Amino acid sequence: MPTETRASTGIPGLDNILTGGLPEHHLYLIEGTPGSGKTTMGLQFLLQGRAEGQKGLYITLSETSEELRQVAASHDWDLTGVDVYDLVSDEGLSEESEQSILHPSELELGETIREVMAMVQECNPSRVVFDSLSEMRLLAQSSLRYRRQILALKRFFANRGCTVLLLDDKSGSTGDVHLHSLAHGVVNLDQNTNEYGPDKRRLRVVKLRGVKFREGEHDFNLDKGGLKVFPRLVASEHGRPFDTQPVSTGTEHLDDMLGGGLVPGSNVLFTGPAGTGKTTTAISCAVHAMRRGERVAYYLFDEGLGTLRMRSKALGLDIDPFLESGQLLLRALDPAELSPGQFAHAVRAAAENDKVGMVVIDSLNAYLQAMPGGKFLLLQMHELLAYLNLRGVVTLLILSQHGIVGDIRSDVDLSYLSDALLQFRFFEARGSLRKAITAIKSRTLAHESVIREFRLGRDGLEIGDALDDFQGVLSGIPRYTGGRPLLGDAAPESILAMPSNPMGG
Asked: Whole-prediction pTM value?
C-alpha cells in the first residue's frame, strides 16, 4: 500500500501514539464527556494546520464563536487565519424562523447539513472540526436518519479532500457504534474524577484503519497551552549498550554487602521502617556518584526539599553545590497532582535528555498513591524499572514499612521486581535504639548474607562488623548473646568492664 500523508494533530504525544499523525483526507471521531478536552484538541489540530500553511474551519453547534475565542485566549492562542462558523445564529432562534407545517427536525436537520456544505465550499478548508454531533443526533431523531446524514457528510468531505474531526460528547444511547463504523479512526478521551486532587485524564485510540498505532490507555493533562499527552512507556523500544562494571556506593562495607557495589542497568530496593536511614543511604550513594562525575535525578515525594538539604549537609553529604551546577536534578513532587504517565515521561526525559546515570525514587509509598488503580500498579512499575535497566541507569527505590519492631508490613510487595534488596531494621542494645542492615538478595552479584550494624554520623554512613552476637535482628526482637563492641562504644575493654544487669537482661 502507498504511504499516506499524515496530518499532525499539534500534540506531539498524540502524534507519537499515532506513529506520525492522522492520515489525511479522512473523517475521525473524537469522543469524550464534557470537559475532557475535545474542543481544545480540535483547536490545536486547526492551529497546527495553520502553522503548516493549511486553511482551517471550526463549525460549532454547541458553543458560540465568541465562547470559542475565549477558550483559545485562555491558552494564549490567536485564531487569526482560522475560520469559525456558528451554525446557531440569532436569526435562527427568532420567532420569525419558527414554522408549524413541517416537523421541526425535518427542516432543521436539512438546513444544518446544507449550511455546513455551503460553508465548506466557500472557505475550501483542508482541516475541519465539527462541534458537536450531539445536536445532529437530536435533530435526526432516528438512528437510520442520523447514520445517513453522517455518511453524506463523510462523502462530501472526502470529495473536498478535507481532514475532519467530529467531536461527540457521548450523549447518545449506550452501545451506539454507528459513528465508530463510519469513522476512519476513533479517539476516546476519558476523565476520571478522584475523591481527592485534580481529575486524571486518559486517552485511548480505539481504531485507526491501515495504521499500526500504540494501543492502550495513555495519560494526558489539560492545562494552559493545550493537551499534553504522555504515551504509554514500552521499555523494549529504548534499549542501548552500556558498561556493566559495578560502581562504588562510596561506603566500603556497603559495597562488600552488595557483592562489589551498584551494577549499571539494575535497581536496588531499600526497605524498612521510617527512620532507619533509607533516604540518607540513597543520598550517600547519589553524592558519591556525582563526585565521580555522573548526573543524578532524585524524585522526592515525602520529605520537604529544605529538610532534605539541611539533613544532608549535617551528615557531610552537602547537595547544594550539585544543585547549583545542575548535576543533581531534584524534583519535589505532589502525588495528588501527578499521573503515572506524567511521571514516566519525566523519568524518560531525565534518562535520555539529561543523561543521568542514577535515578532515586523516594518513596514508593507516596508514588503509588498517584496510580489510577491497583490492577495497573505493578505493571506500570515493572515497565518503568525495565526501561531504566535497559538504559544502563542505576535505580534506587525506597519503600517504607509499617511498624517499628516485630511484625512489619509494606503497602505492596515489590521485592520480586528489584534486582537487589537491602533490608533496614531497628534493634535494641544496652538501653538504646540501634540500626541494622543486611542484603537480602542480588541478581547480579554474590552478596553477603550477614547482618551488620550501621549508623548515621557527621561523616555520613558508618557500617560495622557482622552482628554475630545477636539473634532475631530481622524479626525486630533481637536477643543479645555476647560482648562484641558496637558502633559508638568507647573500646572493647570498657564494654567488658560494664557491670552485669541484675535483672538478667
From this structure: 0.86
